[in-house]
Amino acid sequence: MKQTAPFTAQLADRMPNLELKQLRRFLAVVRSGSLAAAAPDLGLTQQALGAGIARMEQDLGVVLFDRGPGGATTVTPYGTLLIRHAKHILAAADRAREELIAFRDARAGSVAIGIGEAFPHEVIADAVRECHRSRPEIRMSIVEDYSDVLLDKLAAGEIDFIAGADTAAAGADIERFLLYSLRDIVIARANHPLARRPKLRLRDLQSCTWMLPRARPADAALITEAFRNQDLDPPTRFIWTDAPNVGMRLLLSEDYVFMTSPAQVTEPLREGLLMALNTKTPSVERRVGLLFRRDTRLNPSAMLMMEDIRHRVHAHIDESNYALPLNPGRRVSDAA
Predict the structure, then answer these.
(1) How far, CA to CA in Å, does 183 sit from each of 186, 282, 287, 314?
(2) Distance separating alpha carbons of residues 117 and 2, to the nearest angstrom
(3) What CATH code would you report for 110-182+286-334?
(4) Whether the Cβ atoms of residue 291 and residue 302 lie closer than 8 Å to each other
(5) pLDDT value for 51
(6) pTM score over 0.70
(7) CATH 3.40.190.10 placement within the chain
(8) Helix (H), strand (E) at residue 137
(9) What is the tens place of the pLDDT at every residue in 67-96?
(10) What is the signed CA dihedral for 83, 88, 91, 95, rounded to 10 degrees?
(11) Where are the beta strands (DSSP E) in the chain?
């Protein structure tokens, strides 16, 4: 063997020029102990494999094998040192390939969802449950708030998309894939004095305590306008809260009223815990769907989740009578 110098920096500089195919062939020869034994496993002739190893040695400027009779090989000190690096490089390449394939097939990665108002919670819960059951490697993150608040998180890249009501605060950089439209209703607990009144006038709601979302002051303005449009003094008793659990307990225990989307209270309405009051005002029409940034390409896991939510939402509203479907035959990928 001619080279006895250590594995120099010059040699290390040449390492990036090696192909993964060359490293795999090198390790195959190391394992087999000869060119003749390794060649058939690699689908090569002994001559082609020998020529490839020779080019590899020429590129590196060192001898990796001492050749013997019949293609037998003995690993040189340079070859011994290369074994560790070759295994490390190939293992990293294999891991990268596996992660890329998993990412492509939506088997890994992460999904961060913002759940806004007017979106049925049971649809999201079913979608998340099924995603985790079939693809448990995906990291799930769920944030619940009003769409106006979630837009800041979307802009900051903290969430991938919003499932919630469209909002005027969403600018031209936000893509809206609308799923349905619906009108808010006024709800109260089932034993509220006004709950079963067949004909309810707006003046009957003047003295009620209204619960209002602190993050969405436009609701208060809308309620005030509804009363003034009928020459009535608007309500003066309000409880402002963005705490859904506390708010629900208050609503179920006291004679408060709340204007909200029927999609958010389908279960307590179905169970008879809450009732929709027989009034058409105050109300507002909301268009609901999936909101995501136009300048950001969503990863496959997020796209798959959005498609599943789209399918489940349309099945859900087909069974209900409170919403009008939008884009029923269109896929989210058509807009993304």
Answers:
(1) 10, 10, 9, 17
(2) 75
(3) 3.40.190.10
(4) no
(5) 93
(6) no
(7) 110-182+286-334, 185-283
(8) none
(9) 888 778 899 999 999 998 888 888 888 767
(10) -170
(11) 65-67, 73-75, 110-115, 139-144, 161-165, 174-183, 185-189, 209-212, 238-240, 256-260, 274-276, 285-293, 323-325
Structure tokens given for 127: 């979608």
**Peptide bond between residue 325 and the one before it cis (omega within 30 degrees of 0):** no
Could you give the CA distance from residue 31 to residue 73 in angstroms, rounded to a whole number?
10
Q: pLDDT below 70 — which residues of the chain?
A: 1-17, 95, 98-108, 335-336
Nearest-Å Rg of the Cα atoms of the chain is: 33
The DSSP code sequence of 287-326 is: EEEEEEETTSPPPHHHHHHHHHHHHHHHHHHHS-SSEEE-
Helix, strand, coil percent content, the chain, rounded in steps of 5:
45, 20, 35
Q: Which of 330, 284, 275, 324 lies closest to 307 in space, CA to CA? A: 330
The pLDDT tens digits of the residues spanning 215-254 come to: 888 899 999 999 999 999 999 999 999 988 899 999 999 9
Q: Which residue's entry shows tokens 């961060």?
A: 112
CATH level 3 topology of 185-283: D-Maltodextrin-Binding Protein; domain 2 (3.40.190)
CATH 1.10.10.10 for domain 9-104, yes or no, is yes
- Torsion angles phi and psi, residue 60, rounded to 5: -85, -25
Amino acid at 102: A
- With b for 16 or more beta-carbon neighbours within 10 A and e for fewer, the 16-50 pattern comes to eebeeebbebbbbbbebebbbbbbeebebebeebb
Specify the pLDDT at position 16: 56
**Helices within the chain (DSSP H only):** 9-14, 20-32, 35-42, 46-60, 77-104, 121-134, 147-155, 218-229, 244-253, 266-270, 300-318
Where along the chain do the CATH 1.10.10.10 domains lie? Answer: 9-104
